[in-house]
Amino acid sequence: MKVTPESKRLLEAFIEKHQLDANFGDVALTWFIPLAEKLKMHHDGAEGPIFVGINGCQGSGKSTLTELILTYLVEIKQLRVINLSLDDFYFSKDYRQQLAQNIHPLLATRGVPGTHDTALLKQVLLSLKERKTGFAIPRFNKATDDPFPTEDWPIIEEPVDIILMEGWCWGVTAQTNEQLSVPVNTLESEEDSNSVWRTFVNQQLQTEYQNLYQLMDFWVMLKAPSFECVFDWRLQQEQKLIQKLATASNSEANSGIMSANEIKRFIQHYQRLTDQSLATLSETCDVVFELDKHRKIINVKGIK
């Protein structure tokens, strides 16, 4: 596509702000900016706001992709765009402890379906669809493993044109009982031997999440080559979080940082549905970026 001076300046500033590799600019111009232009065309042909679902496993780059699309559409196309992350709808630690006591201990760990406030998510999505204003968007603090105080949540002050909704399991469909019966890792075989946890997660996915998928108008996927990449990518994410919090004086702000061994156990919570998404989701997505283990795009569906 033709590179405008405005687009070039935007990309240079974006790369510097997010401390990205210099070759990110070429990737963005080849694939991500054309995706943003495609979304602009969808918006122009719609009567109301459009919802874009973005799926990608931990560390795949979906947050960076989402932020770039938002920045481009706001600054170059003058559209009103908002980014919603499924992560921002996690229940508090206290509420997850209640789930752990009442249903299964593994629900104390945020991540899987059943640990998100889907009622609040539905309320937010419908309010955006109806172009309402004056309501707050939740924000979750991963360093403390709790939502930010409600008074710190941003307020929607004007109707939104495009909603970018991203999440590691966003769009993933429920599994069969036969699939659930077979543990996928040691976490499931040792800590969920009777399948209570994964059955609950699957039921939540089927009853609470899949209806919300129907609100999406367009789907994008960053497809990892396999779940084995997730540990390395997730470890890189944690190291960035450590650097970000290095100057924080509040010890509580660093309480959510995980060691490598903790990450190994943590990501096992995500394996089943990550494998499910890698096996099934790309078939129904409008745009798919297939990645190698270094997160380099090796194949693309939906963009010429």
Q: Mind explaining what this structure looks like?
A:
This protein is of the alpha/beta class and 304 residues long. The protein is 45% helix and 12% strand. The protein has ten helices and eight strands. A hairpin with a 5-residue loop joins strand 7 (287-291) and strand 8. The chain is globular. The model has no long low-confidence stretch (mean pLDDT 92).
Question: Can you lay out the helices and strands and say which pair or pack?
Answer:
Elements: H1 5-18, H2 24-44, E1 50-56, H3 62-75, E2 81-85, H4 93-102, H5 118-129, E3 140-141, E4 146-147, E5 162-167, H6 177-180, H7 186-191, H8 196-213, E6 218-223, H9 229-244, H10 260-280, E7 287-291, E8 297-301
Parallel strand pairs: 1-5, 1-6, 2-5, 6-7
Antiparallel strand pairs: 3-4, 7-8
Q: What general outline do the C-alpha atoms trace?
A: globular
**What proportion of the residues is helical, as a percent range?**
40-55%
Low-confidence residue ranges:
none
Query: Which class of secondary structure composition applies to the elements?
Result: alpha/beta
**Spatial separation of the terminal alpha carbons:** 11 Å
Overall pLDDT confidence: 92
How many strands in all? 8
The largest β sheet comes out as:
6 strands, mixed
The proportion of residues in beta strands is 5-15%
Name the strands of the widest sheet in spatial order.
2-5-1-6-7-8
- What is the H-and-E element order? HHEHEHHEEEHHHEHHEE
Total number of helices = 10
Rg over C-alpha atoms, rounded to the nearest angstrom = 19 Å
